[in-house]
UniProtKB/TrEMBL annotation:
Record bears the keyword Transmembrane: no
Top-level lineage group: Eukaryota
Gene Ontology annotations for the cellular component aspect, listed alphabetically: mitochondrial inner membrane; mitochondrial intermembrane space
Taxonomic lineage: Eukaryota, Metazoa, Chordata, Craniata, Vertebrata
Any single biological process term in GO: glycerolipid metabolic process
Family membership noted in the UniProt record: Belongs to the AGK family.
Domain DAGKc: 58-199
Organism annotation: Smutsornis africanus (Double-banded courser)
Molecular functions per Gene Ontology: acylglycerol kinase activity; ATP binding; ATP-dependent diacylglycerol kinase activity; ceramide kinase activity
Name of the featured protein: Acylglycerol kinase, mitochondrial
């Protein structure tokens, strides 16, 4: 024993390195063990759904999964197969996995998709945006938009997961909770923005549109990876070397909020008896044709505004979802163009955490529809759900409660409880 202590003391550098290595290895193995326990518990919970008895005449529910293997720097496929796929297969669903090979493929695949009971998106913000765009571009979108959608967060940016699921620092737990939420069946209606250019087909978004200096600087953050935690501030600092102050000019026309209609019942009313239907048809046949009363068309009350801003954003209310509100609108935030370079750098870090935050001194507008006219020769890009599109004149229209997404039952209870208070 004394000899071993003497050897360790004489080689204290190697001893210190060995202890650190063993500690790190032990912590890594313990983390892997905890992840396996989480997967096992989730699979046992999913097995309970798979063991439920169904009538022999009832077919299995079909679930179509759109998986983006390139999400999360190419790790999405492994994350899905280890954490989400076993849960879906144990639940008794008839699962079809569609893997996308290139950007924009999901939009084309949605045009060819046949009937399905569930649509599951496995990826990040870009995958969500592609799938809902392909879905709502279909000729029969009125029918397909009623299909509930599940979201398994596998991408680098998963903005929608903050609304649908509780926060979790453990990635395995976050993915398994999201997958189990699909099986539990609780859904919430989400608003969608329809963004249409002059010639292009419309693009659809569940988060919003950004145009300005903060978005442009945020795109370049990854270029300064070698600066570690300072990369965000560096990207915004070097952005101030351009012409200052940075101003974006546009003309904005918008309509105010609209009253929310009552929600349609999910179950269709029962069909009346045959004699009642015959009586109604005969009454309509023998009745004199009604006189057409001309309806007065009320002109739309458009507001006009000239914009000079450092950044403009148009966002849905999905981040602060209120299931009981009586009006439908989107938030337009026009930030002041008089910003110092120091404020720009500090605020840029906040914008990376919450891209659609509206700082003090900004002009906030609630609108149901807007038209953004850009001066000729305007360069730059829009950020639509964190995807880059060429800046051009666009019309943005709110589609309230257009899609239903699966959510964690605890999150739905929190939304209802907050609304009551």
């Amino acid at each position: 024993m004394a000899r071993a202590v003497k050897v360790l003391r004489n080689h204290w550098k190697k001893t210190t390195f060995g202890v650190c290595l063993l500690s790190w290895g032990g912590h890594w193995l313990y983390g892997k063990h905890c992840d396996n326990l989480l997967r096992r518990a989730a699979c046992q919970e999913a097995q309970a759904f798979g063991d439920e008895l169904i009538p022999s005449s009832m077919p299995l529910k079909k679930a179509t999964v759109f998986l983006n293997p390139a999400a999360c720097k190419g790790k999405a496929r492994n994350l899905f197969e280890k954490n989400a796929a076993p849960i879906l297969h144990l639940s008794g669903l008839d699962v079809t996995v569609v893997k996308t090979d290139y950007e924009g493929q999901a939009k084309k695949l949605l045009e060819l998709m046949e009937n399905t009971d569930l649509i599951i998106i496995a990826g990040g913000d870009g995958t969500v945006q592609e799938v809902i765009t392909g879905l709502l571009r279909r000729a029969d979108e009125a029918v397909f938009s009623k299909i509930p959608i599940g979201f398994i967060p596998l991408g680098k940016t998963c903005t929608l997961s903050n609304t649908l699921y509780p926060e979790s620092t453990n990635q395995v737990q976050h993915i398994t909770n999201a997958t189990l939420s699909i099986l539990k069946g609780e859904t919430v209606p989400l608003d969608v923005l329809q963004i249409k250019g002059e010639k292009e087909q419309p693009v659809f978004a569940v988060t919003g549109l950004r145009w300005g200096s903060y978005r442009d600087a945020g795109v370049k953050v990854s270029k300064y990876w070698y600066l570690g935690p300072l990369k965000t501030k560096a990207a915004h600092f070097f952005s101030t070397f351009k012409e200052w102050p940075q101003k974006y000019q546009a003309a904005l026309m918008y309509l105010g909020p609209t009253e929310r209609p009552p929600e349609e019942p999910e179950e269709k009313p029962s069909r009346p008896p045959l004699y009642v239907r015959l009586y109604r048809r005969l009454r309509l046949y023998w009745a004199s044709p009604p006189k057409e009363i001309p309806q007065e068309v009320t002109p739309e009350d458009w507001e006009e505004l000239n914009v000079s801003t450092i950044e403009l954003s148009i966002a849905t209310r999905n981040r602060q979802l209120d299931l009981t509100r009586t009006e439908d609108f989107m938030d337009i935030c026009i930030e002041a163009d008089a910003v110092s370079k120091g404020q720009f750098v500090n605020r840029g870090s906040q914008k990376m955490r919450d891209p659609h935050m509206c700082p003090e001194g900004s002009q906030c507008i609630q609108a149901s529809r807007c038209i953004l006219q850009l001066p000729e020769g305007t360069e730059g890009s829009f950020g639509i759900d964190n995807e880059e599109y060429e800046a051009m004149p666009v019309e943005v229209k709110l589609l309230p409660r257009k899609l239903r997404f699966f959510c964690d039952p605890r999150m739905r209870e929190q939304m209802l409880h907050a609304a009551v208070q």
